[in-house]
Amino acid sequence: MGVLLYEFIAGYPPYYDDTPFRIYEKILAGRLKFPNWFDARARDLVKGLLQTDHTKRLGTLKNGVADIKSHPYFHGANWDKLYSRYYPSPIPVKVRSPNDTSNFEKYP
């Protein structure tokens, strides 16, 4: 989740290198570099989610996902309304059937 959040905000992944092995090394080292403009609350959330020590990682502690939901980054989020699908989709999508894949790009 932390990797996705970082990439959604920054536009590129938090760990990158030319080879998969070097990417793994960076992940294991746990050192993150953030752009200067990265929101402080988002930075704190990403750091918590990407904590290499699983005993300190946000979401794996005693309160579980409640720690993530109550993080200041999500201040003002109404989780009940989100779960009940109260909010309309920002990108309306027409789906003709449960198997409809017409909204996805075609890959070889």
UniProtKB/TrEMBL annotation:
<dbReference type="GO" id="GO:0004691">
    <property type="term" value="F:cAMP-dependent protein kinase activity"/>
</dbReference>
<dbReference type="InterPro" id="IPR000719">
    <property type="entry name" value="Prot_kinase_dom"/>
</dbReference>
<protein>
    <submittedName>
        <fullName>cAMP-dependent protein kinase catalytic subunit alpha</fullName>
    </submittedName>
</protein>
<feature type="domain" description="Protein kinase">
    <location>
        <begin position="1"/>
        <end position="74"/>
    </location>
</feature>
<dbReference type="InterPro" id="IPR011009">
    <property type="entry name" value="Kinase-like_dom_sf"/>
</dbReference>
<keyword id="KW-0723">Serine/threonine-protein kinase</keyword>
<dbReference type="GO" id="GO:0005524">
    <property type="term" value="F:ATP binding"/>
</dbReference>
<keyword id="KW-0067">ATP-binding</keyword>
<keyword id="KW-0808">Transferase</keyword>
<dbReference type="InterPro" id="IPR000961">
    <property type="entry name" value="AGC-kinase_C"/>
</dbReference>
<dbReference type="GO" id="GO:0005952">
    <property type="term" value="C:cAMP-dependent protein kinase complex"/>
</dbReference>
<keyword id="KW-0418">Kinase</keyword>
<keyword id="KW-0547">Nucleotide-binding</keyword>
<feature type="domain" description="AGC-kinase C-terminal">
    <location>
        <begin position="75"/>
        <end position="108"/>
    </location>
</feature>
